[in-house]
């Protein structure tokens, strides 16, 4: 396969080269602002529309050469309207694990200007293993390989953090169509170092596949996460190990994407005992059981058999009633008009309903609404109490929900100067 090197200067220059020329002989050991996924969409209580980039200084510049920043384009591209989509790779990214993008040259130029690609100090240390690993790979009946807790895990404990194997531009994801997307994905994965190719191809498809191309496509469709890069574009990304996390409608783990380092990090959402499978939710699970079943079957190709979906008929009926109540309560609390039916009592009920329903990965949403609601009627002590709970639970998700966390910190500092102070009373 031919490749063209992309050099980002004042002008993009393309010239043929060989991919093998830059590979090292040995690989190193190894709807608001800031959209939240899978945490829900909350009313953004701030006018600030920035997501600051935080960089850490832990890699020696001298360990990297100019070649580490070179991008390679496959020889096959596809056009959709005025945009041409290609498969691009940077094999030396992330200590030689590499990364692939399916996007346009214009979007790639913006991505390649991010510090994570231009400053070696900003690159994630994804290959460093903890002295006491939180999990191990295990065969899960009916699910393939999953991740299982290896030792007792604490609430909010970091479990793993990984950079993506491949990222697909949202426009390409939605408009290329299966055949053309499959071709570009196959080229993208094939141009990565062999070790990373193997990590990708060992992920589950949930379906029987007969060809290599089908496997590449189905793996992507069944394992991708939505990963927005603010100011550039939304992507769909597949990560090593992170994509091995199986779905549960009431999971015990939560995750966040940090666009400044292109890393997906996973945290325990509750205390987890050794031998328990680590799970996340693949979609908005504040839905009734029948709705969740439709999502899992049509969106991911499997019938959800998690403990919540497999409960007794009585338990499922009670859960569905709580879910419907939660949806109504959120609608009331998110209504800031003078005719809103919101009240602190409804905020308290929302928090209780989240806990009763086992929504531990999303409890910050209930705390957030309760803090806003109490402050809106001038109850500063209660507002600060819930704001502190929100920050305590949400800090590990900071990279995805920073505006909301900053909003809560402002309320904690002085509830009386916060924009929500007595706004319900003033609206009457």
From TrEMBL:
Keywords: Signal. Pfam families: SET. PROSITE patterns: SET. The keyword Signal applies. Residues 126-283 form the SET domain. Residues 1-20 form the signal peptide. This is SET domain-containing protein.
């Amino acid at each position: 396969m031919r490749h063209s090197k992309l050099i980002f200067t004042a002008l993009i220059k393309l010239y043929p080269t060989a991919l093998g020329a830059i590979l090292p002989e040995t690989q190193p050991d190894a709807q608001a602002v800031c959209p939240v996924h899978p945490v829900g969409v909350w009313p953004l209580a701030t006018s600030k529309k920035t997501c600051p980039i935080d960089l850490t200084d832990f890699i020696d510049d001298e360990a990297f050469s100019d070649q580490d920043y070179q991008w390679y384009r496959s020889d096959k591209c596809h056009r959709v309207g005025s945009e041409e989509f290609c498969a691009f790779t940077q094999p030396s990214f992330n200590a030689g694990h590499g990364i692939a993008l399916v996007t346009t040259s214009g979007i790639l130029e913006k991505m390649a200007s991010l510090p994570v690609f231009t400053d070696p100090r900003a690159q994630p240390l994804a290959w460093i293993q903890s002295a006491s690993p939180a999990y191990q790979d295990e065969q899960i009946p009916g699910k393939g390989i999953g991740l299982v807790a290896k030792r007792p895990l604490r609430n909010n404990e970091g479990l793993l953090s990984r950079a993506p194997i491949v990222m697909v531009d949202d426009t390409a994801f939605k408009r290329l169509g299966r055949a053309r997307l499959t071709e570009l994905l196959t080229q993208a994965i094939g141009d990565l170092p062999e070790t990373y190719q193997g990590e990708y191809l060992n992920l589950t498809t949930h379906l029987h596949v007969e060809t290599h191309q089908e496997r590449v496509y189905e793996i992507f469709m069944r394992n991708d996460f939505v990963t927005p890069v603010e100011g550039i574009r939304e992507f769909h990304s597949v990560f090593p190990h992170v994509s091995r996390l199986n779905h549960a409608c009431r999971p015990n783990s939560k995750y966040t994407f940090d666009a400044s380092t292109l890393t997906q990090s996973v945290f325990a959402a509750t205390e987890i005992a050794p031998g328990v499978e680590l799970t996340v939710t693949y979609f908005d699970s504040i839905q009734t059981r029948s709705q969740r079943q439709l999502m899992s079957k049509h969106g991911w190709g499997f019938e959800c058999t998690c403990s919540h979906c497999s409960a007794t008929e009585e338990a499922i009926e009670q859960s569905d009633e709580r879910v419907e109540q939660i949806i109504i309560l959120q609608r009331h609390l998110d209504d800031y008009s003078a005719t809103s039916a919101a009240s602190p009592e409804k905020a308290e009920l929302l928090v209780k309903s989240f806990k009763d329903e086992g929504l531990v990965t999303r409890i910050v949403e209930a705390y957030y609404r309760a803090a806003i609601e109490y402050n809106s009627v001038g109850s500063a002590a209660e507002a600060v109490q819930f704001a502190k709970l929100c920050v305590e639970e949400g800090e590990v998700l900071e990279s995805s929900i920073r505006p909301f966390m900053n909003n809560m910190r402002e309320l904690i500092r002085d509830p009386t100067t916060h924009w929500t102070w007595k706004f319900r009373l003033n609206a009457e």
